[in-house]
Amino acid sequence: MGFPHDFPAFLRAPWVRWCGLLLLCSAYLQGGIVKLTDFGGAVAEMQHFGVSPPAPMAAVVIGGEIGASLMILAGFYRWLGAGYLAVFTLMATFMANRFWEVTGPARFMAENGFFEHLGLTGAFVLVAWYDIQKGKDGTR
After folding, report:
1. Using one digit for the tens of pLDDT, what is the confidence trace for 114-137?
2. Which of 4, 27, 64, 127 is the most buried (most CB within 10 A)?
3. Residue 107 lies in a domain
């Protein structure tokens, strides 16, 4: 499926797609960098959510967030980086945004966060799907 004939040329430029991927990965890059620069805070976050052992798991999360984002941006096994972030986001969503256990105004925020993260999960699934499809016809 191609672009419509009158579609603005600048929107078809490769940098537009790359910027879209950067925006999609921005929360994971920011989160990974913040955790890396405040490892104690990252460990405390793991403890807050009951993840054990907290320090090694914080290191895995940091490596995953930054590494998978860089894979997506570089196009190096993009499908794998996107798949990792899709699974990570889905798991983290069920861990951190359990809106069904919350009442009052906090429920609204948790529910919004839950469904926003489902949307991110879907976006990463589409990135992985597109990358795999692109590879099937040799146009990778």
Report:
1. 999 999 999 999 999 999 998 765
2. 127
3. yes
Q: What is the secondary structure of 69-119 as a DSSP string? A: HHHHHHTSSHHHHHHHHHHHHHHHHHHH--GGG--THHHHHHHHHHHHHHH
What count of Cα atoms within 13 Å lies in the side-chain half-sphere of residue 62?
A: 19
Residue whose C-alpha is closest to residue 71's, from 90, 84, 87:
84
> Please, which residues have CB within 8 angstroms of residue 12's CB and are 6 or more apart in sequence?
3
Note whether residue 88 is domain-resident: yes
* Amino acid 7: pLDDT: 73
Query: 31 lies in which domain range?
Result: 14-135
User: Tell me, what amino acid is at 33?
Assistant: I
In terms of Cα–Cα distance, which of 78, 80, 36, 81 is closest to 60? 36
